[in-house]
Amino acid sequence: MSRTSSNTQTIIASGTWISPPKGFRWIRVWLEREDAGGFSVHVPSLPGAASQGETEEEALANITEALGGVLESYRDDHQPVPWGPYSGRCPVGMIERHIAVREDE
Question: Contact 44/83 with Cβ under 8 angstroms?
Fold first, then answer.
């Protein structure tokens, strides 16, 4: 699966680590199945960046779009993106995926 905007690109790679597209870096996202159905998705390195969707694919598409807007807002305001630290392991019960983000963000 691949979805792009000017700031982000979602790439799902099963089983094999691949390099991000030229000029991009990987950002981890964590998906969680909701009891009522659907998925919530969080960006552990960017507090407050979250979205949801009925399916994993929809949740990833939504967080890709939301993250692109957040990054564009920081760029438009000439502010650095406040990437926060995050622990190395995905929490038990969550699914880890990666979004490629432009290096200049």
Answer: no
Length of the chain: 105
For the chain, domains (ranges, CATH) are 2-10+27-95 (3.30.160.250)
Phi, psi of 67 (to 5 degrees): -65, -40
| Strand 2-4 relative to strand 39-42, pairing | unpaired
Q: pLDDT digits over 62-95, tens only?
A: 998 888 888 888 889 998 887 766 667 888 899 9
Query: What is the per-residue DSSP string for the chain?
Result: -EEE-SSEEEE--SSS--PPPTTEEEEEEEEEE-TTSSEEEE-TTSTT-EEEESSHHHHHHHHHHHHHHHHHHHHHTT----PPP--SSPPTTEEEEEEEEETT-
Mean pLDDT score of the chain: 80
Contact by Cβ (8 Å): 27, 67: yes
- Amino acid identity, position 80: P
